[in-house]
Amino acid sequence: MQDRSESESRRLLRRLRDTLAEPGQGQERLDRITGLIADSMHTDVCSIYLFRDRETLELCATRGLKPESVHRTRMRLGEGLVGRVARTAAAVNTANAPGERGFRYMPETGEEIYSSFLGVPIQRLGEKLGVLVVQSREARAYSDDEVYGLDVVAMVLAEMTELGAFVSDDTAIASLHKHPVMIRAGSGQEGTAEGQVWLHEPRVVVTNLVNDDPTAEAERLRDAVTRLRGSVDDLLEATGDVDKEQRDILEAYRMFANSRGWLRRMEQSIENGLSAEAAVEKEQSEARARLQQAPDPYLRDRLHDLDDLSNRLLRILTGQGNDTGATLPDRPILVARNIGPGELLEYGKQLRGVVLEEGSVGSHAAVVARALAIPLVVHAEGITTEALNGDAIIVDADEGVVHLRPDESVASAFRDKIVMQTQAAARFAALRDRPAVARCGARVALHMNAGIMADLPSLLGSGAEGVGLFRTELQFLLRNSMPRRSDLAALYARVLKAADGRRVAFRTLDIGSDKVMPYMNRPEEPNPAMGWRAVRVGLDKKGVMRMQLQALIRAHAGRPLTVMFPLVSEMSEFAAAREILLREIEREAHLGHPLPERLEVGAMLETPSLAFAPEAFFRMADFISIGGNDLKQFFFAADRENELVRRRYDTLSLSFFTFIQKIVTRCAATGTHLSFCGEDAGRPIEALALAGAGLRTLSMRPAAIGPVKDLILRADLNAVAEIIADAKRRGEDRLRPAIVDYVRSLPPPDTARAP
Fold it and tell me: Closest Cα partner for 8 from 40, 44, 45?
């Protein structure tokens, strides 16, 4: 940029800062700003459009358009040139606005007489706040210097909007972070909670936006960048001996921190009048906008690197560390973009709930949240930019809804729901020691799923008869190196001790897909959920499988050992894995080590192919556990991580239930014990239908055992079986309506439990 333009840019920013410092209400400030920009840039028009909601822009101030159009002119995201700027987060610069694709004429504004148009987004860290526009009668394209200058001004306006500089009754602009917000998201772990926001990564607050000494400010930025680069180098040194893939990631991280272009762009913003902090945020916002539009998923993933580096740099510049002085509230609900399982475990059960902007239902964090019985909501778009520490928040993970700063009517209705749930929980607790025997006399064994030691206290409290699934991968995922055999054996022994004689089915290592060990090379796969994972990894990496099996054998010395292999697709896989286990038992015997008292070897049926395996497979397996989550996604070809389709297909589809009954029939013919494990086992309606289809063992999260047992005690499974058969005869597509009608006809809980 030329010195003259740079000087003009700094002069405009100083005038803008002085204008914002003057007393006045929001509308008065906006009007002064549009006049200031129009005069400084010698344009006929300057207008500020701000978002009223996520989809609607409103003209909030103008110099040059008709005054009566202010707060009357609105447009949808993507509508007209202004809407295009807002949607794409990119500038539109044209000498012939009426001839531009997508131009929309707004007669109430009088803008038809203006040919040239320049619009830039008002945005902060990916959050779209509005659009800043200048227009002129003269048909000309604005220069690069003018575009850059307006972009810098828009960045300052974004910060001032964030700080509430334009809030007032006359603008009808509500304060950011003050009004109630409802966010629809996905449920990662069911449950409800009310409390206060606790941000996992507190926001850095930037209040000084304009500099008076570009040379000194640039030096301050360079010093901070040098410290940042040093901390990244220290991070690389501290990693020690890691695999090539992990080191490549860290080297890419360092390369980003050492990017000359990154520093040069921030220095240019300082030369044009921004403070060092504002320059960092401007670069972060613009880079975010570019990466979010990138078609390459690898480039989009670099957003995390960018955000982390930028936030580290901002904390160095502002002196604001992660410890902001805020204290954990009494009822903390964690809000984060994403979080690892180790970090979530550090918070532990002190959390009331967790809300993630990203995350997934199958993530490590979701597994930990289930273990801790903490409600979890994922894909809560915009929550990290909208929420502040201490904000009131309600999490309804049953429905996948978050209420931030709820009004009293919403909070009151939610508290009524909590009271009802508490009363139901007391009812369920009274059933803890009763077996789940239906009115027809059929008994259903209810087991729980577990994955960490924190799960095990729920074994007694929930009334579970055993652990139908103990996930062993978390002990591998939470470490930076392969765990030792002795450590695993000690852990498995503690699990058995806590189970106090109850059956525990240990699932061997289920990694791959979204579960990646940081110290193991991960191949690039187009569809990891259907790729190299679970037993496939174990059979290829026999050393890892053998080490884990040795740990299990040693932990079970003198006690029954139950092992099941995940994602078995055909008999040969199960036979190979079973043979490895039997050889390890022979080896332990040869070494003189004590052996398990009894051995059960089973498979998880998670792929439709295994249901059609030869009869020899069903005779070879001591038991089979249907892995409902994976089986359903493969049966319907609907990725359970994809919010567009994962709720589209109902477990109570008759086609799926016909398939489940086929598995029940095959296991009954060979006397193979069969269970169902997964989220659907913990949903009372689905659990009742599964029991009616012939399944007599269900494994679920501990909190679901009470509600499932309550319904089974009141039901007649013969009647449920007849409902399923009748639906088949009638050619129905779904069982749910008929099952729900049957449940509504059942006697109330109190009368159903009479001895």
Answer: 40
